[in-house]
Automatic annotation (TrEMBL):
NAD-dependent epimerase/dehydratase domain: residues covered: 21-211
Keyword annotations: NADP, Oxidoreductase
Coiled coil: none
Name of the protein in its database record: Tetraketide alpha-pyrone reductase 1
Amino acid sequence: MCGVPDDLKKINHLVSLDGAKERLHLYKANLLEEGSFDSVFQGCHAVFHTASPFYHDVKDPQAELLDPALKGTLNVLKSCVNLPTLERVVLTSSVAAVAYNGKPRTPDVVVDETWFSDPDFCRESQMWYTLSKTLAEDAAWKFVKENSIDMVTINPAMVIGPLLQPVLNTSAASILNIINGAQTFPNASFGWVNVKDVANAHILAYENASANGRYCLVERVAHHSELVKILRDLYPTLQHPEKCADDKPYVPIYQVSKEKAKSLGIEYTPLEVSLKETVESLKEKKFTNF
């Protein structure tokens, strides 16, 4: 059990969940320490590896993003080798590991699970988070093949919806910026998906014996201008950004295939609902200034 006082604040929202007293056991472990998860995984049927840092203001990409993603993933997988009870590993990857390869992404282009981001393209573009997820997923597939581990990856886009934790995460922060008085919105188009759909996909990926390979999770790709419009309709009294951060043409939207996710049993929450849930959660947790 996490017993270090410093950690207690980080876990209060978990230990207060329904049924946590009976069914939740928390252990202290370090992603960057090989063998850190060996004792934790004993007797487990499934391992869900969901942790990887995601933020934009990076000073040292290697230490802050690349090492935790790549070494962390491999350390978790190493602890899964020779685990007699293990049935499957479900790895949280990202659309970041799928869609960034220099190929054009326009409204008629459909990105699917056969796409892989190109590490060289990510490096040249200094997209460090994208690079971290690309390298981590690639290394994971090689490792599980060599060690005969059954793995499924879930590749969500920007995850929004209600916040479980007390701190602000990067995806929710992008919505908070729009409603908290920003003067401009970014000239960027991203895929968006509800956190509850992502959680459900992880469960289905474990429980459904025929689940295999990768599953992209994107309800809709939308430019920030569309988010502003939806939020203005939902919250007309708030001050919303009126103009784009630059004068360039809007970055085009593109499509992400939903076929494979639907075969898993995913039914997506509409973007409008996800945005409303995000704002209501931000209000409830006192992140908003209204």
